[in-house]
Amino acid sequence: MQLPSSLLQNAVAEFSKLPGIGKKTALRLVLHLLKQEVTEVRHFGETIAKMRRDIKFCQRCQNISDGDICSICANSMRNQRMICVVENIRDVIAIESTQQLSGTYHVLGGVISPLDGIGPNQLHIQSLVNRITKEETEELVFALSPNIQGDTTIYYIQKKIAHLPCRVTTIARGIAFGGELEYADEMTLSRSIANRLPVQQYVK
After folding, report:
1. According to DSSP H, which parts of the chain are helical?
2. Does residue 177 register a pLDDT over 70?
3. Is the pLDDT of residue 36 over 90?
4. Among the listed ranges 81-90, 105-114, 181-190, which one has the minimum average pLDDT value?
5. What is the distance between the alpha carbons of residues 138 and 169, in angstroms, rounded to a whole number?
């Protein structure tokens, strides 16, 4: 795509680096910004830069946060003895939208996948085990995508905490095996959380 300005070309190239944004969409976004006041565009850029610079990760659960502890962990109305284990932050957002979970979260940062070179030590698994031990967690809810990698991760963590008096459950398989949690509709995800079952029924 040949454009009349190198500045325009560079801006389009940067926008097209975003997931799901092709060259044409990137050009449309850049041309939209050109129609805005300079102060508005400056504010847009500064907001993105500030987000990337100042955003933190919760020291307790690894969720995104404005401070050292996220708003969910700091909420005294949440069940602090329940931990919902998820793969990534998008899953936290998806589950929160159902308003079905009263507990807290723990973001693993991925799932065990030997083929992709991802092992247990590259995930926030040990910090989860430490949390369960220290906080005397009563229920651990696995909300990982129902696929081989998700089940492998559940199996590994379950073995790590087998000696602890913690009830272990997983979301009901209203979500198709092999599907991605973040793409499930809210109704399906809501029912899966509400109807969670003992993890032994799925992971042997």
Report:
1. 6-15, 23-34, 38-54, 89-96, 126-135, 148-160, 186-194
2. no
3. yes
4. 181-190
5. 11
**Is 62 within 8 Å of 124 (Cβ atoms)?**
yes
Residue with the two structure tokens 């990534």: 88
Structure tokens at 164: 């602890």
In degrees, to the nearest 5, what angle opens at C-alpha 19 toward C-alphas 2 and 44? 80
Calpha distance 73→59 (Å, rounded) = 10
The DSSP 8-state label assigned to residue 4 in this structure reads S
Walk me through the domains of the chain, giving residue ranges and CATH numbers: 6-54 (1.10.8.420), 75-201 (3.40.1360.10)
Cβ pair 192, 171 in contact under 8 A: yes
> In angstroms, how far apart are the furthest CA atoms of the chain?
67
Cβ-in-10-Å burial (0-12, 13-18, 19+) of 32 comes to exposed
Q: What is the dihedral of CA 154, 86, 97, 43, to 10 degrees?
A: -170
Residue 76, token pair as written in the block? 């005294």
Residues in the chain, how many?
A: 204
Do residues 95 and 189 lie in contact, with contact meaning Cβ atoms separated by under 8 Å?
Answer: yes
Amino acid letter, residue 43 = H
Give the CA angle between residues 21, 25, 31 to the nearest 5°.
Answer: 130
Strand order of the β-sheet with 79-86 is 103-107, 79-86, 139-142, 167-170, 197-198
